[in-house]
Amino acid sequence: MRTVCSSHAGRVCVLAALTLTVAACGDDASTTGATGTPTTAPTTLPPLTTTDDSAGTTDPGTGSGTDTGASATSTGNLPTTTGGSDTGGIKLDLGQPDFPNDPTGDTDAAKGCTAVDLLFVIDNSASMGQHQEDLSAVFPDFVDAIIDALPPGTDLHVGLTTTSFYDGGCSESTVNCVSQSSEQEILQHYVAPPASTNENGGQGRLFEWQGQHYFSLDTDEDPSALKSWFTAAATAAGETGCSFEMPAAAAGWAADPATAPTNDGFIRDAGAVLVVFVLTDEPDKSPEPVSQWVDKLVAAKQACGGLDCILASGLVPGFCYDNPGDSTLKTFLQSFSAPPFTGDIDGNPSDYAMVVGDALAGVIQEKCEEIEPPA
From start to end residue, where is composition biased (Low complexity) (predicted)? Predict the structure, then answer.
């Protein structure tokens, strides 16, 4: 299934964070060392259809779902499409951006964000390899789309973390989207910072690639390096992470001072939009209440406006995302300033292009317009 959520009054809003999740157990995660600046981009959207979901089925042995419903659902108002003969994909009718440096815009007051921080939460458990490759394939077009959507001179930060909190033996399974491990077993595979498992990108720490923990780019600059950096980093995250996937916890810890040695400087506060994108194919086993992970992100955005400056998005397991037995990830993604823009991770490549593409870039643009620049 595809789920498209839009904001009130016809304005579409999205938060980007990718979390990849898998059902199998992982080996020891590889590590690297350095800090710096990463790059990557998105694709154009395929035609969008909307319809009510029908019930899916799940293999009671594996918990994997078969979606028997239609390809998309929506919450709130759908994006409007522009007229004309272009049938290559949906386009958002966002109107005229109202930025200070836009000579056609309203100049009565300074408006618009000055920075956008994109946090991808990527599942690095077994079976995630193809999903990571599919995300990497659409990222360059996304970069082009977001650069086109944002005003010149906007500062982008792009980073990724994984869903793993344990470096060692992991064996876990789900039935009807519910983990068959006990709460004690789940907690045994959750090592919270500041303790370290020494996994590159684990426990909410940013994944280091080519000497950089995140990539910084001005929208006036050539984005080629960012595209190359992220495309390689997303697949380098690999499939050796623990199968007790914890994307919500990873996103929360990414904003916590306990991960500052690797993450310092990545998330900006005043004048910056934070987008959390999750890429995962399994239920979220984050052991603590969802509110804790939301609170950590909000605490890092107090000067900007807290929840109002955070967006969420993701490619997630379609059947489990709407299953009452697995509410953690959906609750987390729905906790921010606008309905999350999500797609089915097991869908065809066009699902990836739809979610990580022009529509998400347009949602970020809309949110950027709402935010006051730093004083």
Answer: 29-76
